[in-house]
């Protein structure tokens, strides 16, 4: 037996998503018009949850791919695999999304190999086709199919950014960490910790985020705040949880850690 086949994520349950700026209606309009969507924003600010929520809301199967620097076009489209002495074509997640009228979400798309953009181009203009060179098929995407990609502009280097010829094929939405009162609501809902205690954490996060671009490459994410609040809700002391989730994951530099510890010592 080989590895279990990666399938579509269930869209039966609606993952909770707190909207901040009309992004749900925008997504739905883009889906109805057959437009591909680019989500820009820092890691852990809600992009993946947003796509999962919208896929479930629209009743479409979701195929999520975390892109990395070894990811090739064949990983998305499919390949011939040996099966009992025979070779059999196996669809990749992008091909399945096209065939099934699903939503394909390519997380951190700039990490993928260059040949990936070649398969995305004919899918992201008015042709909406996916040519499968190996099988000789040219798949016409049904109206329900949607391509969504995300990337984090904060991490981009000159060598790793989306080319204008690729990015100008997408409608784009910019994501950021939500305003404090909304982030408090999200962290409380996700962790079960009281809003009062969450508000203290968000206050600390805001001060840590002010260090972004100076001492820190990236500020603390909503995801890490949810980790911290969950540990506290489970009975851990606030300082211990904050140190392990809001300080240590951010840096390995002793001076930076000391500066973050200083912020923590004045917080609770
Ligand atoms: P990204 O894809 O931007 O890296 P995620 O979507 O994985 O980030 O978000 C990380 C976590 O933060 C989620 O699992 C969820 O707990 C929480 N989260 C962030 N924003 C929201 C939001 N608007 N509504 C609900 N949960 C959110």
Features:
Rossmann fold, alpha/beta, single chain, 268 residues, binds adenosine-5'-diphosphate, two-stranded antiparallel sheet, 11 helices, disordered N terminus
Written account of the structure:
The protein is α/β, with parallel strands linked by helices. It folds into 2 domains: about 25-175, 3-Layer(aba) Sandwich (Rossmann fold); about 180-265. About 40% of the residues lie in helices and about 15% in strands. The protein contains 11 helices and 9 strands. The strands form 3 sheets. A 5-stranded parallel beta sheet has the order 2-5-8-1-9. A two-stranded antiparallel ribbon has the order 3-4. The relative contact order is 0.13. Residues about 1-5 have low confidence and may be disordered. Adenosine-5'-diphosphate binds near residues 45, 190, 223 and 226. Adenosine-5'-diphosphate (ADP) binds near residues 18, 43, 44, 45 and 190.
CATH topology name of the largest domain, in short, is Rossmann fold
In terms of structural class, how would the helical and strand content be classed? alpha/beta
Strand order of the largest sheet: 2-5-8-1-9
Number of helices: 11
Following the backbone from N to C, one meets helices and strands in this order, namely HEHEHEEHEHEEEHEHHHHH
Organism: Wenzhouxiangella sediminis
GO molecular function: ATP binding; ATP hydrolysis activity
Domain CbbQ/NirQ/NorQ C-terminal: 183-265
Domain ATPase dynein-related AAA: 36-170
């Amino acid at each position: 037996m080989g590895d279990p086949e990666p399938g579509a994520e269930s869209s039966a349950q609606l993952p909770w998503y707190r909207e901040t700026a009309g992004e749900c209606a925008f997504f739905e309009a883009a889906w109805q018009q057959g437009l591909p969507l680019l989500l820009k924003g820092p890691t852990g600010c809600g992009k993946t949850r947003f796509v999962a929520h919208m896929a479930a809301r629209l009743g479409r199967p979701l195929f999520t791919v975390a892109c990395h620097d070894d990811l090739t076009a064949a990983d998305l489209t499919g390949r011939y695999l040996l099966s009992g002495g025979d070779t059999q074509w196996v669809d990749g997640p992008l091909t399945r999304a096209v065939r099934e009228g699903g939503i394909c979400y390519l997380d951190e798309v700039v990490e993928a190999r260059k040949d990936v953009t070649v398969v995305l181009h004919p899918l992201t203009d008015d042709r909406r086709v996916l040519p499968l060179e190996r099988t000789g098929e040219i798949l016409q995407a049904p109206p329900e199919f949607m391509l969504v990609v995300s990337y984090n502009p904060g991490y981009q280097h000159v060598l790793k950014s989306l080319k204008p010829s690729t990015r100008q094929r997408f409608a784009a939405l910019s994501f950021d960490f939500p305003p404090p009162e909304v982030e408090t609501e999200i962290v409380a809902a996700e962790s079960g910790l009281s809003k009062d205690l969450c508000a203290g954490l968000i206050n600390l996060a805001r001060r840590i985020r002010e260090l972004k671009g100076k001492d820190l490459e990236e500020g603390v994410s909503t995801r890490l705040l949810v980790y911290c609040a969950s540990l506290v809700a489970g009975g851990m002391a606030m300082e211990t949880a904050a140190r392990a989730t809001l300080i240590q994951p951010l840096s390995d530099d002793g001076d930076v850690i000391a500066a973050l510890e200083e912020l923590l010592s004045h917080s609770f």
